[in-house]
């Protein structure tokens, strides 16, 4: 099984998109950035686990399902519901991976860097969101012959 751990803010939306459309980002995603995530899913046949803070809000999860993609699960909230907690997201990803030993390959799409050494993070920038280069790098990673899981 291939898994994509997906953040939303800074991946499927961006500061650039908000400024261009004169809006707040909450509950909105950029269709062009969504299409890049959808391309990753289509080309790699991966399944998505929502690791974004959007997972904490039912209405936000519905926006992801409607506008971005279907997801099979969410990482556990090890931050106690805090938007910016002291616990690294990497620990939440690791906890999910530990419960799902059938994962052969995974990638993390996030604009934050609070992950564990050796985790497969493909870092986006909040200003621009996912790029074509990052999209292709994730596709290449998830379709590579090497199925070794590398994480702490």
Annotation field: number of helices: 5
* CATH class call: Alpha Beta
Q: What's the number of structural domains?
A: 1
Tell me the β content. Answer: 5-15%
Overall mean confidence score, pLDDT:
89
Low-confidence stretches: 147-152
Query: What helical percentage do the residues reach?
Result: 25-40%
Q: Topology as H/E string?
A: EHHEHEHEEH
C-alpha termini separation: 19 Å
**Strand numbers in spatial order across the main sheet:** 3-2-1-4-5
If classified by CATH, what would the architecture be?
3-Layer(aba) Sandwich
Shape: globular
Fold-level CATH name: Rossmann fold
> By helix and strand content, what is the structural category?
alpha/beta
Report Rg: 14 Å
Number of strands: 5
* Main beta-sheet annotation: 5 strands, parallel
Structure description:
The structure is a single chain. With 152 residues, this protein is of the alpha/beta class. The chain has a single domain, classed as Rossmann fold (3-Layer(aba) Sandwich), CATH 3.40.50. Helices cover 35% and strands 13% of the residues. It has helices spanning 15-20, 31-44, 58-68, 89-99, 132-142, and strands at 2-6, 47-50, 73-74, 105-110, 121-123. The protein has a five-stranded parallel beta sheet with strand order 3-2-1-4-5, covered by helices on one side. Helix 2 runs parallel beside helix 5. The two termini are 19 Å apart. Mean pLDDT is 89; it is low at 147-152.
Summarize the topology.
Layout: E1 2-6, H1 15-20, H2 31-44, E2 47-50, H3 58-68, E3 73-74, H4 89-99, E4 105-110, E5 121-123, H5 132-142
Parallel strand pairs: 1-2, 1-4, 2-3, 4-5
Helix pairs in contact: 2-5
